[in-house]
Amino acid sequence: MIFTHYKIMLDKQILRDLQGIPMGIFLPMPVWENLIHKYPDIEIIDNEPPRWEKDFIDKRLNMVNNHPERLKPVEMLFEML
d(Cα 4, Cα 20) in Å, to the nearest integer? Predict the structure, then answer.
C-alpha cells in the first residue's frame, strides 16, 4: 500500500506562492539521487563560485540579454525531466 502512494508522488512539482508565482520545486528522491549521481558536487555550497562558473554565468546572461526571444518557460524543463 505504501509503495502505491509513493508511486503517485514520483512527479516533480512546481511550488507557487498565493499569487501563483513559481517559488521553488519539489523533486522526488529518485530524481534527486540521479542528479547527485550525475553532478556529485551539487550539494557543496561555497561562498564564492569558481572563476569558470562566473564566466559561464556571464556568458549565459549576455546571451539572454542579446537574445531574449530564446527564453523558454521553466515548465518546459520540467516536461523534459
Answer: 29
* The model's pTM: 0.41
Per-residue pLDDT for 7 more than 70? no
DSSP reduced 3-state for 41 = coil
Cα–Cα distance for residue pair 11/27, rounded to 1 Å: 7
Specify whether the CB–CB gap between 31 and 12 falls below 8 A.
yes
Beta-carbon neighbour count of residue 35 at 10 Å?
14
Taking phi over 0 as left and psi of -120 to 50 as alpha, with beta for the rest, 27 belongs to: beta
Which tens digit of pLDDT belongs to each residue from 65-78?
999 888 888 888 88
Domain ranges of the chain: 2-80
- Tracing cell 539521487 back to the chain, one arrives at 33
